[in-house]
Structure formats: C-alpha cells, structure tokens
TrEMBL record:
Species per Swiss-Prot/TrEMBL record: Macrostomum lignano
InterPro entries (alphabetical): Sushi/SCR/CCP_sf (IPR035976), Sushi_SCR_CCP_dom (IPR000436)
Pfam family, one: Sushi
Keywords attached to this entry: Disulfide bond, Sushi
Protein's name in the database: Sushi domain-containing protein
Sequence ranges assigned to domain Sushi in this UniProt record: 253-307
Keyword Transit peptide: no
Top-level taxonomic group: Eukaryota
PROSITE patterns in the record: SUSHI
C-alpha cells in the first residue's frame, strides 16, 4: 500500500507500507504540530492495537489502523520585530525591503552589507539574504536565518597577522622610538569585497620587516635643546657647572652640566641630578631628570633656580 498525504504539511516515513509495517506520520520541514511545542500538554492514549499518536499499521488486506494523526501547521517568521526588537547587524538600512509583516518558511529578502562587510555565504558579493527558517529546538517557532542574523561578515585580510606588533623583549622599542606598530584590515583600493593590510599611526608597511628594536632610551635634546647654547642655558638657570649622572646599572659619573646633551640618548632608568648654585634654589628641591620606561623624561624641561633672597 502506498500512502498519500491526507493533511497539509504531513509526510509518511516510509511512504510505501507492506503488511505488518509500522508507519510514522511526521510534519515536513517548515511545519509543526501541537505536540511539538516545548510547553505542550497534549497527550493521546495508546490504541488497543498498541499504536501511539501519529502512527499507522498496515494489515494484510491493504487496510490500516491508526491513532490520532495531528494536523501540521505552517510556521511563520515575524518581520516586524526586525524593525523594533531585533536589528540585522552590519547592513545598510533595510526596512524598505520588508514587504510583509510575516514570512513563510524558506521565504527570504535581500539586504546590502555595510562598507567593509560581504555576504556570509558569498564572499564575492556585498548583497546577502535573510530567510525564514525553523528553530531546531522548538519546531513551532519560526527563526530568521542565518543564526544571530549575521548575514554579513567582515572582509578579511590574508594572511592573518597581528594587529599590534611590539618588540619581543621588555624594555625595548623600535628605532623610531615607537612601542607599537599598528596595522588594520581595510578594503583594497576600488574594491568592496577584498581586504588589505594598511599601516596606521605612522606605521609604514614597507619598512616593517627591516625595522629593528633597541633598548628604551630618552633623548638628551628634550632636557637641553641643541638649538640653544648649553653654557648660557646653565648660567641662565643658575645651575652649578657639574651634574651627577647615575645609570640603571648603578654606574655614577660627574660631568659638566653643559655637556649633558652631547650624548644623543640616555638609557632607561638614567638619573641626571642638577644642582642650583649656593645662592639659589628651585623652591621645591634640586631638579632631577629621570628616564622613564616609556622613553620620556619625568620633566618636560629643566626648571630655573631662583635667587634665595627673592623668595
């Protein structure tokens, strides 16, 4: 005996029955019956023949016995929620393409991806579709597909690279005194579907492979600009002629204050102690310059000493 659909959305498995064979009646994809609900309280008794709901038994004479065969109802997806409660991410305004408040199973509509995004299913297109599907847990519910409405995905760059590039060793930075080389994935020139890596915040991709790292240091010119006469600057600020320099390894030397800017750089943790003349002070203690771990001094410029009698 061959079974045919007796109700909208119903299908039989298998659809051809032989004597003594038990047939299960089920709903086609996109349909559901009342007992499919997670909160359903529908219960049907087993027949005298031992048949449960939605089962058919084939007899030798071609007739069959059955229990209750539930009606299959079509599911629908609510489109109005896409304008209010839900929003499709990474797409241009799409409200105008929603031509109906409800969509049936497999019905779909097309959206345009935002700049930098392409179709999740077709990486060569900036147009993508959203379709009405069926929730696999609760078959009574329509569910917009793809899951989480991520129909558009970001354009990707190949090969995958770190976005932030740093020196491997702590206490080191690049030759141009930057700690980070920042690159980001952007659209290739004239393209909406392919990406390329570009340097930002001064990062030059052409030099990235050849640039070297060096220990963190501070520029002496920051404390004592070479555009001015060092001896005159020391005298104007009422400093003593000599300063004490202590390096991070504990080494200490005394040099002429006017010679502080002769080395271009001082290693991290270097301390340069200036002293005011006997007849003056800064009012807040002796000026001390300390090279910090970020490659800058703790002071932006040397303070001036003031004659004590004027305080």
């Amino acid at each position: 005996m061959r079974l045919v659909n007796t109700s909208y959305g119903v299908e039989f498995y298998p659809d051809t029955a032989n004597y003594g064979q038990l047939i299960n009646v089920q709903c086609r994809p996109g349909f559901y019956r009342a007992s499919d609900s997670l909160t359903a309280k529908v219960s049907y008794p087993v027949t005298a023949d031992g048949l449960r709901a939605n089962q058919i038994y084939c007899f030798a004479d071609g007739s069959f016995a059955s229990n209750v065969i539930e009606v299959c109802n079509p599911i629908r997806c609510n489109a109005t929620m896409l304008k209010t409660d839900l929003k499709i991410p990474h797409v241009k305004p799409y409200e105008s393409v929603l031509t109906s408040n409800f969509y049936n199973y497999t019905d779909s509509f097309t959206v345009n991806c935002s700049r930098g995004y392409v179709s999740y299913t077709n990486l060569s297109s900036v147009r993508s579709s959203v379709a009405c599907g069926q929730n696999w847990i609760d078959k009574t519910m329509g569910e917009w597909q793809p899951p989480d409405l991520n129909t558009c995905t970001a354009v990707k760059c190949e090969p995958i690279m770190n976005v932030s590039i740093k020196c491997k060793q702590a206490g080191y930075f690049f030759e141009d005194r930057q700690f980070d080389k920042i690159i980001k994935c952007d659209l290739s020139n004239g393209s909406l579907i392919s990406g390329q890596w570009i340097g930002i915040y001064g990062t030059d991709l052409n030099n990235l492979k050849t640039i070297n790292c060096k220990p963190v240091s501070c520029l002496s010119d920051t404390l004592m600009p070479r555009s001015t006469d060092a001896s005159t600057l020391i005298k104007t600020k009422s400093f003593k002629n000599n300063v004490t320099i202590e390096f991070g390894n504990g080494t200490r030397v005394t040099v002429e204050a006017a010679a502080v800017n002769i080395p271009d750089e001082y290693p991290y943790a270097s301390v340069i102690a200036f002293q005011c003349t006997e007849t003056s002070d800064t009012g807040v203690g002796e000026p001390i310059a300390y090279c910090k771990s970020d490659g800058t001094w703790n002071i932006t410029q040397l303070p001036s000493c003031i004659r004590k009698e004027l305080i």
